[in-house]
Amino acid sequence: MERDYGAEIDGLRMELAEIRKLLRSRTAAGGKTPASDMPERVGHIHKVRTVDADENLIRVLDRLENSCGESGSTGRVAYTGVFSSGGRQSTWVREDVDTDALLSLIEDGAAERVLRCIGNNDRLRILLAVLRKPMTVAQLVEECGYNSTGQVYHHLKPLMAADLLVEDTKNEGRGVYAVQPHRVQGIIMLLAGISDMLDPTYTEGNWDAAE
């Protein structure tokens, strides 16, 4: 398909005209942002706009800001994603999740219980291996570098008790372990949160010193 350079140039001219108009209005206001350009508020929430964000995401953000401002809560979040590996796919969409409910997970000790269950390198390695594809204990011994099946069973037990892993007799056969489909989103989103905390864009933390 050939590009219409004339139309693209006309579009750029229109954008430049809007920018000039905005600059003139701010100059007339003594260099300050006119009241009409001030951020809108809903309750205690200032509505934020960023020109770099996707239009569809801006609409989602707008709904979250409205919901948060109208309810008076500390915040609202939304997340969506897809994960496909080992012949299995998980897809999720969560919107308007109340951050007050998320913060309460710390207050009631639930966050600590979850992190204590999986906050172990051996269990995380098993989770990673089984996320990639369902495996038997023998395969986990080889994949994760254990010396015996007993070591694997030792860590499988709490992961299964937490309903993170299951022996998938229905789809894979006896002795084959897989991540529960409804737990995949939580694992991936937890890793996304860790990635945010490790992001050096604004600051770098010494995580080793926190041990």
Q: Explain this structure to me?
A:
The structure is a single chain. By secondary structure, the protein is α+β, with helices and mostly antiparallel strands. It has a domain of 95 residues: Arc Repressor Mutant, subunit A. It contains eight helices and seven strands. The strands form three sheets. The protein has a three-stranded antiparallel beta sheet with strand order 5-7-6. Helix 6 packs across helix 7. The radius of gyration is 25 Å and the shape is elongated. The mean pLDDT is 85.
Keywords:
211 residues; alpha+beta; Arc Repressor Mutant, subunit A; 3-stranded antiparallel β-sheet; two-stranded antiparallel sheet; 8 helices; 52% helix; elongated
Can I get a quick summary?
The chain has 211 residues and is of the alpha+beta class.
Straight-line N-to-C gap: 57 Å
Basic shape: elongated
The main pleated sheet reads as: 3 strands, antiparallel
Q: What's the average pLDDT?
A: 85
Low-confidence stretches: none
Count of runs of 4 or more consecutive helical residues: 8
Spatial arrangement of strands, main beta sheet? 5-7-6
Give me the count of strands. Answer: 7
H-E order: HEEHEEHHHEHHEEH
Looking at CATH, the homologous superfamily of the domain at 109-203 is: Winged helix-like DNA-binding domain superfamily/Winged helix DNA-binding domain
What would you report as the Rg, rounded to the nearest angstrom? 25 Å
CATH fold-type name of the domain at 109-203: Arc Repressor Mutant, subunit A
Structural class: alpha+beta
CATH architecture classification name of the domain at 109-203: Orthogonal Bundle
Beta-strand residue fraction = 15-25%
The level 1 CATH classification of the domain at 109-203 is Mainly Alpha
Helix content: 40-55%
